[in-house]
Amino acid sequence: MLLTRKKKSSFTNILKQTTGLKRSLSKKIVPLDGNTAASSVAYRMSENVFLFPITPATPMGENADIWNSNKVKNIYDTIPDVILMQSEGGAAGALHGALVSGGLPTTFTAAQGLLLMIPNMYRISGEFWPAVFHVSARVIGRNGLSIYGDQSDVMAVRSTGFSILCSGTVQECGDFALLSHLASLTSGGPFLHFFDGFRTSHEINSIENFTNEELKKFVDMDALQRHRERALNPEHPYCLGTIQQTDLGFQGIESYNKEVNAIPGIVENYMKKIHELTGRKYHLFDYVGHPEAEQIIIMMGSGTQPTEELIKKYVKEDNKKIGVIKVRLFRPFSKKHLLEAMPATVKKIAVLDKCKDSGSIGEPLYLDICCALHKMDVDIIGGRYGVHGKEFTPAMVHAVFENLNKKKPKNNFTVGINDDVTFTSLEFGEPIDILPKGTQQCLFWGIGSDGTVGANKNAIKIIVNNTDLYGQGHFAYSAHKSGGITISHLRFGPEPINASYEITNADYIACHCTPWVHKFDLLKPAKQNSIFLLNSPYNTVEELEKFLPTEKKREIAQKNLKFYNINASQIAEDVGLSGRINMVMQTAFFKLSQVIEEKKSIELLKKAIEKEYKIKGQVIIEKNWNAVDQTIENIVEINYPREKWLNLKKDPIKEIDESLPDYYYDIMEPVSKLEANNIPVSKFPFSGYMPSSTTQYEKRGIARTVPDWQSDKCVQCNLCSFVCPSSVIRPFLLTKKEAEKAPYGYTTIKATGVDAKDAKEEALDFKIQISPYDCTGCNTCVANCPTEALVMKPLQEVVDKEQEFWDYSLGLSKNSDKATFKTSNIKGSQFMKPLIEFPGACSGCNETPIVKLVTQLFGEQMMIANSTGCSCVWGGTLPSNPWTTNEKGYGPSWGQSLFEDTAEYGLGMAKAVQARRSKLEILVTKTLEDRSGIKDEIVDALKGWLNNFGDREKSFEFGEKVKELILGEKNYKDNKYLKQIIQQKDMLAKKSQWIIGGDGWAYDIGYGGLDHVLASGENLNILVLDSEVYSNTGGHASKSTPRSGVAKFTSSGKNTKKKDLGAMAMTYGDVYVASICLNADPKQALKALIEAEAYGGVSLVIAYTPCIAHGIRGGMGKTTEVNKLAVKIGYTSLYRFNPDNSKKNKPIFSLDSKKPKAGFEDFVKKQIRFDSLKYTYPELAKVKLSELEEDITEKYNSYNRIVQTQKLLNKKKKKK
Q1: What sequence ranges are listed for the domain 4Fe-4S ferredoxin-type (predicted)?
Q2: Is there a contact between 203 and 196 (Cβ–Cβ < 8 Å)?
Q3: Cis peptide upstream of residue 119 (ω within 30 degrees of 0)
Q4: CB atoms within 10 A of CB 1148
C-alpha cells in the first residue's frame, strides 16, 4: 500500500491547537475537516464570535475558543472575543448588537439552533448589516431528533433575507467561508454559508488554506469604513429598530432591492479573485458534464461530489450527454447566471433537494428551477435524497439518470430508501467504483470511548503531513454513548479524493471490538487479498476456529484475506490504559499497511502521542509509548487452513422466535445489524412512536469483564443494585420451591431481615444476579460493595451460566411484596423492579442510577418530560427504549420536545392531566349523586377514590379497585357514567409528573422556562442531572461548570464560579429544593427524592453526576471515590430545603453534608478537567484553583449561615 501523490506539494498545518494545527498560516496542503476549514477563515475575518454549541456545528466554536485561548490574532491584528451564550437566540441577539455597533461578528450553528435565530435574522437583513452565519446543515427534528445532515434547517430560513452560499466539499468550506465574509462586507448585507452536517463538516480531507496576508488583500477597506460609520454612536446618533405602521412598512422592505440585486455580481467578482489566487474556479452555478448534455441534474451540497465524478466517468467512457449544475449561491437566486451555466441542448432536468417540504407541490430548489425555467421547453422533475443524512452514492446518481431517461419519468421521487407506501422511491443497483486509480480504502470497526475515531483522525494527519498522499476520513457513530459502534472510513491516494459516501470496497479492515465479529457483516466490503486485523484474545488457529462464526471463516477464505490478530485489549491493560486500545490498533495499522515505512511511522506516532496527551501528563504519554512498542512484537499472522474454511457448511438458518414482537424483526434486528437502510417505509411506526421495553432484546455483550457474586461474603445491603447504571445487577427473593427448581449452580443464601418471609411465614432465599450481555463492565458495583462480595471475571468465562440464571430469575414471582420490605430504604427499594433497564449510557454513568431509583419509587405512574441531552440519547434513541413496565403493564411514559422548552413542555403535560382528571372528578361526583343501578361496592370504591383524589398512592389503590369492579360487571356499558369512567380509567391514578434534564438545559438554555415553572406553584418534580458540562455535545462549559474547570469553551479554565441554582430556587420560599450525590450519600439521596415527590408544590432536585468528560483518572469506575471526596471537601454540599417543615415546627433547611475537610489537592489530581490546567497554563492554574478552593469555602459558609440563622430564630421562638 505504499503510494505517492501525483503532484508533489509542500505542506504544513494551520494554528497549533488540539486539532494538531500549527501556527504557520502559509498556503499548503493540510488535512482539515469542513468545520475547521470554515472556522479558521471565519475566526480570522471576525472581531467577535457569539455562539451556543449544537451538533454538528460545535467544533467550529471549539476551534475559535482554543485559538482565542492561545491568543491567535485575526487579520486586523486583534484577538477575537469568543462569547458563549445561553442559547442560539442569545447568540443571534448579541451578534445583532455587535453589528449595530460597527463590529464584525460571526456565529456557528445548525438545525433548531438556526431556527431560534430566525427573528434576529429578519432584523439583521431588514437593517442590512454585514454578518456571516456559518451553518453545518442538519435535520430539523420532526417526530424525532436527529443530529445528522440534510438541508431542512437552511431551507427554513430562506425567506429571512440572508444571502445563502453552499459548499459541497471541505476545500469549498474554506473558500466559501472567505467568499461569504468578503461579499457580505462589500454588499453590506448578511450571508449564511452552509455545508452538509457530518458528511462535510466532519469529513477530513486534504485542502489548501489561506494565509493572513492573502486574506487581508481581499478585504474591501472602504466597505469596512462605511460599516463603521453607519454604526450607532452617541457622537453621530440616530434611531434604529423603530415601530412602523401600515403606511410605511411595505415601502421600507422594498427600499434595499438594489443592494440585494447587486449581490450576485459581487459574489461572482470575488469568485474570480479567488480563482486568480488559487486556480480554483467557481461560479454562482457551476456546470460539469458533456458540453451538449441533454439530461442534467441540478443540486447543491456534498451530493454534487459523487454526481460529478460519475458524470465524468460516463462522459469519458461512453460519451453520455449528461451533466450536473452545482448551485453555489442559492439566495439571491440569479436566473441569469443559471441560464449562462446550462447547456442550450438540455431537454430534461432532475432537481435534487436534500430535504422534505411537507404539503408542498415540490421542494424549494425544485420550485426555484421550475419558476426560473418555466418559459423554456424543458421537462423538469424533482426528487429528494440524503434526508436525515441518508447515504447518496454513485449508484443512486445512476438511478436518477435512469429515471430521467424514461418516457414518463417519476416526479417527486425519492432515492436511497424503499417507499412501499406512496411508491416514490427509485430502485438503485450495486456500488459503482468511481475513485481515482490507486486510492486505498480502510475500514476500522471500533466501540465508543476506545479511542478509535481519534486515532484515525491522527492517522490521516500523520499520513498527509508526512507523505505525498492525499487523504480523506469520514466517521460514523451509533447513538449509544461510549459503548456504541463507531466506523471510521479512511481513504488515501495519489490524487485528490472527492467521495462523499461510505466505503464498500476495502483494502484494509480492522475489527477493534471483538464481539463485532459475531454481530456485524464487517467483512462484506473486503476486497480479494485485502488485510483483516482482529483484536481478540485468540492468537492461534485452533482458538479462532472455535471463536469465529462459520460464515466469517468461509468469507476470509473465499476472499483470500491476509488475516492478523492482536490482543490489543490485553496490551492496553498491561501498560495501564485499560479499554483505550487506540494506539495499539493504530500502530498495527501502520505496520501492516506500510503506508509509511515502519520505523518512520513509529517515530511519528510517538510525536503525535506527546502532542495529543501533553495535557494529561508525562505518565499517560509514556504509557502510550509503551503500548506502541508492545504492539510491534505482538501482531500475529493467522495461517488459516484455507481449503478447510472454503468448504465449511453454512450454519442452519436461525428459526424465528415467535415470542418476540414484530417490532423486533421489523425494526430492531435490522438496526442492530446495521441494515436499517433497507427497512421499507411501511414498517415505520407513525409519528415517532416507540414501544416500551425494547432494550431487553439488544444483548450487546460489550463488557470484557462482569461482576461475579460471592455469596459467602454478601451482607444483602443491595447497594450494588442501587448504584448500577444499567439495571443489570438485581436482588431476587425466592420461595423454597423456586430455589429447589433453580438451574444447577444457581446459588442462593437465606434472606435476612425481619420481613424476609413469604405469605406462609416460610423463610425466603436471596440471590444477586447479573445480566451478562447487558452489563457494560463499569466496575461501579464492585467499587461500592462494602464486603468485596463481587469480583470482576472475564465475560466469556461466565456468560453462558449467568445468562441462564438471569432468565430464570426474571421468571420468579414477586416475593418482595410478600416480604413487605420498606421501599423507603436502600435495601427495600431495590426489590422493586427498575422501570428503566439497559440504557445506552456511558459505562459507569452517574445519571442513570438516579433516574432508575426514581422509577423504582414512582415509575408505574410517572410521566416524564425530558430535555435534549445525554438523558434523551440514552433514554430515547429509536429503536432502543429502556423504559419498561411492571407486571401490570404500567411504567413511565416519556416525551421530549426541544432543548430549550423542557420545563414548559412538562408544565403543559401536567396541566393537561389536571384538566382531564378534574373532568373525571366531576364525572365521579355526578355518578355518586345519581347512583341508581350501581352496586354498593362500586359506590364505596368511587367514594374512596374521590376522597383520595390528590393522593398518588391511594388514588392508584382505589382506582385499581374501581376498574376491577366496573369491568367485572357484564353490562357496565349500559350505564352512561360507568362507561365514561372506564373510557377515562387511565386518569384514575394521580400521575407523578417529572421534568428531567441536564445542567446545560437547567442552568442555560432552558433557565427562563425553568424559572417560570419554579414560580408556578404547580405540583411538579424537576430532576437536574448536573454533570457541570454539556455532556452530550462533548463536554462544553455551562453556568454549572466550576471556576478553573477545563471544558470546551473554557480551555484555559473557567473564570467565574458555578451558578448556585439551588440557592436561587430557595428564594421563592415555596419550592422544595435538594442537592444530592447518590454514590456519596445514598440514604440522603433516597430521602430527598421521596420528600420531593411527596411535596405538594414544585420540587427541584439537583443531582451531582460526574461525567466521562471530567477525565476521572482510572475511569468512570472510580466515580464513587471522587463523589465521596467531593462531598468530604465541600465541593458538593448536600442539603434539603422543605417548606412543609415550617408547618411541623422543624427547620426548613437541612445541611446534610458535614463541614469541609482536607483533600482538595487529591480531588483536583483525580480529574483531568482540573489537573490539566497545571500543564497547559501553570500560572493561571495556581490562581484559578486557589479561587475554586475559596468558592467551596464561601458556598459552604453561606449554607451554614442559613443553619445558624434557623437555630437563632428557633431559640427566639422558644423564649417567646
Answers
A1: 705-734, 766-795
A2: no
A3: no
A4: 18
Q: How far apart are CA 492 and CA 594, in angstroms?
A: 12
123, 138, 1136, 1169: the catalytic one is: 138
* Contact indicator for 586, 595 with CB cutoff of 8 Å: no
User: Residue 636's beta-bridge partner residues?
Assistant: 565
Q: Which residues pair with 83 in a beta bridge?
A: 50
- C-alpha 769/C-alpha 93 separation (Å) is 55
Q: Which of 1156, 1166, 1160, 1168 is nearest to 1185 (CA)?
A: 1160
Q: Do the Cβ atoms of 498 and 439 come closer than 8 Å?
A: no
- Does residue 828 contact residue 751 with C-beta atoms inside 8 Å? no
Instruction: Sort residue 1147 into left (φ over 0), alpha (ψ -120 to 50) or beta.
Output: beta
For the CA atoms of 166, 168, 174, 176, the dihedral, rounded to the nearest 10 degrees, stands at -30
Cell numbers found for residue 908: 403543559
Q: For 215-262, what is each residue's pLDDT tens digit?
A: 999 999 999 999 999 999 999 999 999 999 999 989 999 999 999 999
Q: Are strands 204-208 and 29-33 parallel, antiparallel or unpaired?
A: antiparallel
Asked if residue 284 lies in contact with residue 334, where contact means CB atoms within 8 angstroms, the answer is yes
- pLDDT tens for 982-1039 read 999 999 999 999 999 999 999 999 999 999 999 999 999 999 999 999 988 888 999 9
Report whether 1003 contacts 1061 (CB < 8 A).
Answer: yes
* Cβ within 8 Å of residue 206, ≥6 positions away: 29, 30, 31, 464, 470, 471, 472, 496, 497
Helices and strands: H and E segment counts in the chain: 47, 38
Catalytic residue among 88, 738, 860, 1093: 88
Q: Which residue has the cell 464570535?
A: 49
Q: Which of 19, 55, 120, 881 is catalytic?
A: 55
Residue 847: HSE in the Cβ half-sphere, 13 Å Cα cutoff: 29
Note if 88 is an active site residue.
yes
55 carries an active-site annotation: yes
| Dihedral, 1078, 1082, 1084, 1087 alpha carbons, nearest 10 | 100
pTM of full prediction above 0.85: yes
Asked if residue 1176 lies in contact with residue 1168, where contact means CB atoms within 8 angstroms, the answer is no
Residue 289 forms beta bridges with which residues? 323
- The proportion of the chain whose per-residue pLDDT surpasses 90, expressed as a percent, equals 87
Return the residue matching grid coordinates 501523490: 5
Strand arrangement of the beta sheet that strand 862-866 belongs to = 893-896, 862-866, 992-998, 1021-1026, 1099-1104, 1072-1076, 1135-1137, 1149-1151
Closest CA to 547 of 486, 634, 444, 638: 638
What are the CA-CA distances from residue 180 to residues 45, 272, 419 (Å)? Answer: 10, 14, 38
Pick the catalytic residue from 19, 884, 1032, 1123: 1032
CB 161 within 8 A of CB 122: yes
Answer yes or no: are the C-beta atoms of 554 and 530 closer than 8 Å: no
End-to-end alpha carbon distance in the chain: 91
H/E element, 476: strand 470-477
**What is the identity of the amino acid at 597?**
E
